[in-house]
Amino acid sequence: MSTVSESRTKEDDDVSSGPSLSYELVNTADDQSESAVETEPSTVSAGNGKIYLDAPEKVSISFGIMPSDGRSWVGKMDVKCDDVPQMMREGFYWSVENVIKEEGVVDNYTSPAYSSSNKPKPPCRATRRWILQDMQRPRRWIAYLEVHALTLDIVSNIRLDSWHPNMVVSCSAWGHLDNLVYQFEARAPEDGFNTIYDDLMLRGWWPWPRLRPRTQVFVRRNGGRLQRVDVKELTAEMSD
Predict the structure, then answer these.
(1) In the list 3, 77, 158, 237, which could disulfide-bond 145, CB 3.0-4.6 Å?
(2) Beta strand residue intervals within the chain, DSSP E
(3) How far, in Å, CA of 120 to CA of 108, rounded?
(4) pTM more than 0.85
(5) Closest CA to 130 of 154, 151, 156, 169
(6) Residues 3-29: tens digit of each pLDDT
(7) How many helices (H) and strands (E) does the chain have?
(8) In this structure, are residues 194 and 200 in contact, taking their beta carbons and an 8 Å threshold?
(9) Where are the domains of the chain?
(10) H runs (alpha helix) in the chain
């Protein structure tokens, strides 16, 4: 079974690189907020993610993100930062306020979809991308968030203000020599580790171990069947 511990590429120009996720997609659009967010007109030109590509840091944290239905779309956030331990000690936080609105883009094209079965994979026909950055100065991190879905209407209606940390289903972090220092995947929580701070309870969007109880329900494979598992059960299994 593929996990987030797969080797990443060292070419930061390939922003779509990183650990692959394997989940099945269907054409649903749950978990989308219908609320509109008022924004002030901008005089900045559309950058299409250039500010992220120009950032000199390597990708050092990668999050796999899914809606609670686990099926309408799949997302991945790659974070460039120089100090992963600092992000662990202080917590990794972000919200819609961190989005650089002028850097967003949507691609409408056919690409392989993520699938958890051996059936033919339906194509992902749309990808939406956002660039986010730390609001503290000097900036501690900058991130590239992308979501893949079956149809353009799904990605065009995604609103990040409805997202929450319980949507993170996997996470990996690397040190300066590109070796794994942190790993968690909801489907295999027993394989989670933090080589820097061991059992330190992490805050913000770090998925494990968490300071506050997780209530999200994940789907994992049990033999040849998919099984819905409450995270409280996963936490109990990790403590055994």
Answers:
(1) 77
(2) 59-65, 73-81, 105-111, 124-133, 141-149, 168-174, 180-185, 193-194, 217-222, 225-230
(3) 21
(4) no
(5) 156
(6) 434 445 444 444 444 444 444 444 444
(7) 4, 10
(8) yes
(9) 50-213
(10) 50-54, 84-90, 152-156, 231-239
